[in-house]
Amino acid sequence: MKIYISVDMEGITGLVDHTHVDSDKHNYERSRIIMTDEANHVVTSAFKSGAEEVIVNDSHSKMNNLLIERLHPETQLITGDVKPFSMVQGLDESFSGAIFTGYHARAAQPGVMTHSMIFGVRNMFINDVAIGELGFNAYVAGYFGVPVIMVAGDDCAAREAEQLIPNVTTAVVKEAISRSAAKSLTPAKAGQLLQEKTALAIKNRDKVKPLTPPEKPLLSIEFTNYGEAEWANLMPGTEIVPGTTIVRFHAKDILEAYQAMLVMTELAMRTTFC
């Protein structure tokens, strides 16, 4: 049994604002220790629950946050940037299940540090389904026939996961008070919860079906201002919906849609205030 783990940072225990997740800020170094230890609780429980191989993908910002020396010795870590499939790099049909930990809810929704890839995105859609990072990554897993068996993060991320993925196991390590405040478990208590929930998720993995993506999906990204839409529209094959900041792309499959999203959001980040 192979288990895939994607680890973001905004949904980690006790982390509530940009000072925790920005490598230039004062809280970052202690936050990456908490992040690594939290990932390791999931990894360790996966091995104890019968996994023969565990791949961990660092999925936050420049994707070099996890401290490899603190991970279970049998862990294989995907780290660094640029990765062709970003938060789901290395995920394929060989895995029995995927676990998303440290995850947050999508842009324009309640929850701690909510966003969708960049802060310039207001909404993302696959056809008519509103998704964030969690949903998009679950669709890629579904393309390979891999179910997302567990999502860990704040209560808002858990609700989003439960709405998208029937029977998914969720682990709530903090409850959002606002976008930059939460009532959080301690790392010790969260670690115990994550180990228990990981074991449960692996035990119940056959109850979770992969989130099957649509064929030839229509990707729509609504940006916060027109300049971002203009930059995103530089990618061949895209179009701006007249009178909006929505950029659309007709993809051949969800993998092409995912990479299109990466390119469009990277371009949009070039927009300046004036």
UniProtKB/TrEMBL annotation:
Zn(2+) 1 binds at residues 8, 10. It comes from the Bacteria. InterPro entries: DppA_N (IPR027476), Peptidase_M55 (IPR007035), Peptidase_M55_sf (IPR036177). One of its GO terms (molecular function) is metal ion binding. The keyword Hydrolase applies. Zn(2+) 2 binds at residues 8, 60, 104, 133. Keywords: Aminopeptidase, Hydrolase, Metal-binding, Protease, Zinc. This is Aminopeptidase. It comes from Neobacillus mesonae.
